[in-house]
Write a structure and sequence with these properties.
Layout (H helix, E strand, L loop, with lengths): L21 H7 L4 E4 L6 E4 L2 E5 L4 E9 L4 E4 L14 E3 L37 E10 L8 E6 L14 H10 L7 E7 L7 E8 L2 H10 L3 H6 L27 H10 L15 H21 L1
């Protein structure tokens, strides 16, 4: 049985091989189940939340599948304890940034300035970190949950020593002795003398029946998905509604005002009407004219 009781009864066998639907994945984030090595302890993480932490400095697992090559991740800014922001650039083929990378740092990993020794913010390491992803099951729960497990670059390569190997020489040791990586129970243990480093050693071989279970688990959707590199990006802030622009102020041009003044109709001032002549004045004038006529006739 699994270390965590999900249901009162055992999990139906068909659910152990069913792939999660998109709705469920959308709420889980980047990983359903993984084993974290943060803070110097092995913790079981489900849906982004720690649900159990081992007090022992080691954990026994069986490696179901392993990524074929290293992955690369570049994080922007200083790392803060407990922060879980995703990288801005990453590569699942160790050749070029993945198409989903939000801020690719170069066209290829080989030409990237963050892939040069001394580019790290501290020490002489590289700013771009390498890791190797494993899909593992717990030693006592071969048919249970498949967990993602990331092996840092410094725990992948190196010489190591007997029963205290980095990942690569450990797998080579098993292979040179005719043992497939999935046929052994593997102890993963924190190095007591080198903080942050983990070592690998074989504990025991699986029985034939157990090995057949592991071989079938290697084709489970959970094991295949565990080796897919993806990150949940934080949601962008909803843009604030823009204020409605004010109506433009139309200013009258001086020329237009002058034209309007010139075009204004000219109103002529009407002369005052002449005062009417009184009737008595008319008679007097008429009498004077008649008198002038009479005088002219007498003169003839």
């Amino acid at each position: 049985m699994s270390e965590i009781a999900l249901f009162e009864n055992s999990l139906p066998s068909y659910l152990k091989t069913v792939e999660l639907d998109d709705d469920t994945k959308s709420m889980l984030g980047s990983s359903g189940h993984r084993i974290s090595t943060s803070n110097g302890a092995f913790s079981m993480v489900v849906g982004g939340k720690v649900i159990a932490t081992r007090e022992e400095r080691y954990i026994n697992v069986v490696i179901v599948r392993m990524a074929k090559n290293d992955w690369r991740n570049f994080y922007e800014g200083e790392y803060k304890e407990g922060e879980s922001k995703p990288p801005v650039c990453w590569s699942s083929d160790n050749v070029r940034p993945d198409s989903g990378a939000t801020k690719p740092q170069a066209n290829t990993c080989e030409d990237c300035p963050n892939n040069i020794k001394g580019s790290a913010r501290q020490g002489e390491g590289k700013a771009c970190r390498t890791s190797r992803r494993l899909a593992v099951v717990l030693e006592n729960d071969l048919e249970g949950n498949v967990y993602e497990f990331n092996v840092p670059g410094r725990s992948t390569y190196g010489d190591g020593e007997q029963n205290k190997w980095p990942l690569r020489p450990y797998v080579q040791y098993l292979g040179n002795n005719g043992v497939p990586i999935g046929a052994a129970v593997t102890e993963i243990k924190f190095d007591l003398t080198d903080k942050g480093r983990i070592n690998f050693r074989p504990v025991k071989a699986l029985s034939e029946g157990q090995y057949n279970i592991i071989r079938s688990r290697a084709e489970d959707p959970a094991a295949l998905n565990a080796l897919k590199l993806s990150y949940s990006q934080p949601k962008a802030d909803t843009p604030k509604a823009l204020a409605k622009p004010a109506a433009p102020v139309v200013e009258e041009a001086e020329d237009e005002v002058e034209d309007a003044v010139e075009a204004a109709p000219v109103v002529k001032k009407v002369k005052e009407a002449e005062k009417p002549v009184a009737a008595s004045d008319k008679d007097a004038k008429l009498k004077a004219l008649l008198d002038e006529l009479d005088d002219d006739e007498d003169a003839e």
